[in-house]
UniProtKB/TrEMBL annotation:
It comes from Rhodalgimonas zhirmunskyi. This is Ppx/GppA family phosphatase. It comes from the Bacteria. SUPFAM superfamilies: Actin-like ATPase domain (SSF53067). Pfam families: Ppx-GppA. Residues 44-359 form the Ppx/GppA phosphatase N-terminal domain. Gene3D superfamilies: 3.30.420.40, Exopolyphosphatase. Domain 2 (3.30.420.150). Residues 1-25 are annotated as: Disordered. GO terms for molecular function: pyrophosphatase activity. Residues 16-25 have a biased composition (Pro residues). The lineage of its organism: Bacteria, Pseudomonadati, Pseudomonadota, Alphaproteobacteria, Rhodobacterales.
Length: 370
């Protein structure tokens, strides 16, 4: 007798599919847009624990400040490029139905005589309302974006944000803050640098400065110097001269307990070169620690390559080769004054600071460990 055929045998098996990821609730989404002298960048994210999860992003070099040093005005071409990029940002915001957002412009718009007309044109053509923020707020947002990278062993912290049109430096004393609380103390600076009431022991902002020299503006100042090495040396010393009003400038700083956190394309490019990456990998770069000596070695390598070699280097490329040397000049000036074994590389900046500030103000971030 033949065995009984099981019921359903021969039927097509039902496929096991992974569930389609649920689209994020628009009510939980936040957008942050940073329009700088060189780049337009945006993040859309939702809070997740004490951090956030990025849902969508945008980044493009628009060179809004091209020619600004010479004319004091934003050019028609640079405004056109920027508005095209902002249209893409507007489409992403609309697609995700984002309601909570901050869209900020920095140094190029602070300095341009026609910035108000440009802001109105952006509103008219894209529907986006840009807000020109002041240097102190830009510095504060850069600081809180780096909070997760602050070591519990750090007693003196210098946060450096090298932008296209300006460089922000903030010196913070953490000696009074319990070691485990130090990263969180940096996050609490979202409420301001000065005398904010808090039940917690606060991080003390010793001094901050916004130097009106970034990778694009410093390069433009010395564009007429033909010799590559001479131009680099002049840029570095000129930037150091502009630090004279920063109160910790002359203080000798012991390497123990001292940390610099650097946030910029310059710092991440130097880190990628140090690691010998053939393709940029944020997971390997963000949070990497480098010493002054390791950074000097990379910068010396850039000088040996020269403009042609730097253009061919996949970590630098044609668009960034001139900017990497002005950024490296700034970085070298800082490390000449404050050598360190703990420069932490931050692949984060104003956008992340804007998101943290919005989410912290709304109380949607958990006060957990970073």
């Amino acid at each position: 007798m033949a065995p009984k055929r099981p019921e359903g045998a021969g039927a097509f098996p039902k496929p096991v599919e992974s569930p389609v990821p649920k689209p994020p609730d628009p009510a939980q989404l936040y957008a942050a847009l940073d329009l700088g002298t060189n780049s337009c960048r945006m993040l859309i994210a939702q809070p997740k624990g004490s951090q956030f999860h990025v849902v969508d992003s945008f980044s493009k070099s628009v060179q809004l400040g091209a020619g600004l040093e010479r004319t004091g005005m934003l050019s028609r071409a640079s405004m056109g490029r920027t508005i095209q990029a902002l249209r893409i940002c507007q489409q992403k915001i609309k697609r995700h139905k984002v309601k909570r957002m901050r869209l900020v412009a920095t140094e190029a718009c602070r300095r341009a005589k026609n910035a108000d007309q440009f802001i109105k044109q952006v509103r008219r053509e894209t529907g986006l309302q840009l807000e020109i923020i002041q240097p102190e707020e830009e510095a504060r947002l850069a600081v809180i974006s780096c909070a997760p990278l602050v070591s519990t062993k750090t007693e003196q912290l210098l946060v450096v944000d090298i932008g296209g049109g300006s460089t922000e430096l903030v010196w913070i004393d953490l000696t009074a803050v319990p070691a485990r609380e130090r990263p969180r103390a940096i996050m609490r600076l979202h409420a301001g640098f000065h005398g904010v009431e808090s039940p917690f022991v606060a991080a003390k902002v010793v001094d901050w400065i916004s130097v009106p020299l970034g990778v694009a503006t410093l390069r433009d100042q010395f564009r007429d110097v033909e010799d590559d090495a001479a131009r680099f040396a002049l840029m570095s010393w000129y930037f150091e001269e502009n630090l004279a009003e920063f109160s910790p400038y002359q203080d000798e700083q012991a390497r123990a307990g001292f940390q610099i956190v650097g946030t910029s394309g310059t710092v991440t490019t130097v880190a990628a070169s140090h690691l010998g990456l053939k393709r940029y990998d944020r997971t390997k770069v963000d949070g990497l620690r480098m010493s002054s000596d390791e950074i000097d070695k990379v910068i010396s390598g850039y000088l040996r390559l020269g403009p042609v070699g730097r253009r061919r280097d996949p970590r630098i490329g044609q668009d960034r080769q001139a900017l990497i040397m002005s950024g490296s000049a700034i970085l070298q000036a800082l490390l000449r004054v404050w050598p360190t074994d703990r420069l932490s590389v931050a692949d984060r900046g104003l956008r992340e600071g804007l998101l943290y500030a919005q989410m912290s103000a709304d109380g949607v971030l958990e006060d957990g460990l970073f």
